[in-house]
Structures are given as C-alpha cells and as structure tokens.
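Shipment paperwork, digital attachment
Item: protein structure file
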Amino acid sequence: MTKQKKSMGRPKLTGNKRNNFINVRFTDEEYLQIIELEKVLDLSRTDLIRLRVLSDAGRVVINARELMSRMDTIGADMGRIGNNINQLAKHANTLKLQNALDPLVVRKFNALFEEYIGIQQLLETALRKIIRELGR
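Attachment content:
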C-alpha cells in the first residue's frame, strides 16, 4: 500500500494569474470617497478599482443616493414650475374676462412657455439616457 501525498492549500492557478501589483496613494478625502463607493456599490476595493479602470472604463459608476437626491430636487422644481404656470394662466384668464390682457404680455408668455417646453424635452431626454445607462 502506497501512502498518498496530502494536498496543502488551494490548487495552483494555471492561467490569468494576477502577479503584478500597483501601489497607489490617496488623500484622506479620496480614500473616504473610495470607502463610500465600496458601501454604495457593494463591491470590494479591488473589484471597484478594477471595474473602474479596466472592465468598464467607458461606463460611469453612479452614486445612487446622490442621483436620487438630485432627481428628487428636479421633480420638486418641476412641480413648482407647473404650479407657477397654472397661476399665470388663471391670472391671464381673469384679465381676459376683464378685457385688460395686453397682447404683448401674451406674446412674451408664449415665447417663454415655448422655451420652457424645449428645456423640459431636453430634461426628459437626459432622464431617459440615465435610465438606459442604469439598465446596463
């Protein structure tokens, strides 16, 4: 009877062995940002850096909390804008009933409203792009 040799440790890696090391120094602020990204994205530090530098260099790593906070702010601003537009329309209708509505004011309002609609369409396009990128 021959005695088998005991295998010690994990098996040797045959291909794609990571044997190069890069030492990088960060400021305290940068290091805290990396720690926060680790928590938000639920990735190890190595995976986060590897992902950011190599795998998906074209992709953007998104801080979901900050994105949601900013989108919430945009939504609130859009609501306030809509409320202001409704108030202006109500006031214009009141003036129209009193035959006191100046046609110059109407033209200026229409021009500003068209500009607002253009900006709103650009915002919708940007939000669609963000949603598409998040889906990748």
